[in-house]
Recover the amino acids of this structure.
């Protein structure tokens, strides 16, 4: 029980750090998004229209478009090969809308071109679905039964989630890079500047998530080692 409390205290601190960092990066992306939502992009048409142009210029066709509820819920789903865009980004023409829609188009292009970090990430999805729900149970069992072997297995399971978050980083950064590059070649300086600010803020949320899970893993590993 003593060890369990020990794990818990440090773990609580890390959870607190993760929550604080998450809230900070979330409020930053919301601020940047709000700022650039009031600036009209230099393009004719909506975020969806500009994303279509970006796909066409990359020679990618057959990608669907759908509107989803919520704000900043935008994503590309490889299962239906569709950009799911929130109301504002689908039908609005602000710099923020164009930036987000083009970022999602970047994901569709990654899939169409077989960009390797995406393939690794896709392969990890079923693994992570399993390990995410089981690692903490195995970990807890290891603590309660005082079995170091079980704890080590739990850490390996947790490591899969950490790996997934690390592989997500190049995928996200590359999608943003593709969007900014397209806006640089087709749009004007204002589009590019806004896209940089919005998409950098978005990238920070992924960096924060990956960072806290790496810290979490290192902490658990060090606790396991000091116990032995
Ligand atoms: Zn993305």
């Amino acid at each position: 029980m003593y060890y369990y409390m020990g794990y818990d205290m440090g773990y609580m601190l890390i959870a607190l750090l993760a929550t604080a960092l998450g809230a900070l990066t979330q409020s930053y992306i919301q601020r940047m998004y709000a700022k650039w939502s009031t600036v009209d992009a230099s393009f004719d048409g909506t975020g969806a229209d500009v994303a279509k142009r970006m796909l066409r210029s990359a020679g990618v066709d057959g990608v669907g478009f759908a509107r989803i509820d919520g704000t900043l819920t935008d994503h590309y789903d490889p299962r239906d090969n569709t950009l799911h865009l929130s109301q504002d980004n689908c039908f609005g023409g602000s710099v923020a809308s164009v930036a987000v829609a083009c970022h999602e188009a970047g994901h569709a292009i990654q899939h169409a071109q077989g960009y390797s970090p995406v393939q690794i990430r896709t392969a990890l999805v079923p693994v992570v679905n399993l390990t995410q729900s089981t690692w903490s149970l195995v970990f807890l069992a290891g603590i309660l039964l005082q079995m170091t072997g079980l704890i080590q297995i739990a850490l390996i399971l947790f490591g899969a989630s950490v790996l997934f978050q690390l592989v997500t980083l190049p995928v996200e950064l590359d999608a943003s890079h593709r969007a900014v590059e397209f806006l640089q070649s087709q749009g004007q300086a204002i589009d590019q500047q806004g896209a940089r600010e919005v998409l950098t803020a978005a990238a920070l949320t992924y960096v924060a998530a990956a960072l806290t899970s790496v810290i979490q893993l290192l902490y658990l590993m060090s606790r396991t080692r000091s116990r032995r």
User: Anything to note?
Assistant: The chain is about 80% helix and 5% strand.
